[in-house]
Design goal:
The complex is a heterodimer of chains A (162) and B (33).
Chain A: H1 9-18, E1 19-25, H2 31-34, E2 42-46, E3 52-57, H3 62-79, H4 83-96, H5 103-118, H6 122-134, H7 140-143, H8 145-161
Antiparallel strand pairs in A: 2-3
Chain B: H1 11-21, E1 24-30
The chains are: A mainly alpha (162), B alpha+beta (33).
């Protein structure tokens, strides 16, 4: 990570602008036991109270680091009920890092978060369609099937009432 | 090339900075070897 990922200009600038970087040895006591860490590298996103919201284990290449951090930030804000900020970060992954490893999962969560924050099922439909067409080779369309089923149930419910 | 990131090493300092700057914390458990 020190040789390739952290020296990358985009990674450095993103971290400087958006996050407080904290670094400890992987066997540092008590933090490694507090956070149940068993190897390096392990990256954890914490909120301002020190609570964990997202974790990534293993080497992260430079081109994947910014989307991964955006994803962790989005999950953290969602946990904190700050839906708009969560969705903003997911949208950056989807629009600016569409080929990244995190993009399919970001698309999936964008549908879920959009629905949970508005109760509008169009977000589920949009996510499912995007996953089905753009990321089907990665298996996320399969994991998004419940999104599609909820749309079918909604349609069935509508037809039943007519 | 040396990283240009200025890492904090004390979690209490990092938490204080996070609260003041309203930012999240990236905690990196690393092995220098």
């Amino acid at each position: 990570m020190d040789a390739v990922t952290y020296p990358d200009k985009n990674v450095t600038e993103f971290i400087k602008r958006n996050i407080i970087p904290l670094r400890v040895l992987s066997d540092a006591i008590p933090l490694s036991t507090d956070f149940n860490v068993h190897g390096a590298p392990t990256l954890i996103l914490l909120d301002t109270s020190g609570k964990e919201h997202y974790r990534a284990v293993g080497f992260i290449p430079a081109e994947e680091m910014v989307p991964l951090l955006l994803f962790g930030i989005a999950k953290t804000y969602f946990d904190l009920n700050q839906f708009d900020q969560a969705i903003q970060n997911l949208d950056v992954i989807i629009s600016e890092h569409p080929k990244s490893y995190m993009a399919p999962e970001a698309t999936y969560l964008r549908g879920v978060y959009g629905y949970k924050s508005t109760r509008d099922r169009k977000h589920l439909r949009q996510a499912y369609e995007k996953l089905r067409h753009e990321y089907k080779q990665r298996g996320w369309a399969i994991r998004a099937l419940p999104l599609a089923k909820s749309i079918i149930l909604l349609l069935a419910s509508y037809l039943w009432k007519r | 090339m040396e990283s240009m990131i200025k890492w904090e090493t004390d979690i209490d300092v990092a938490l204080s900075m996070a609260q003041n700057e309203k930012k999240l914390i990236l905690l990196d458990f690393f092995n220098p070897e």
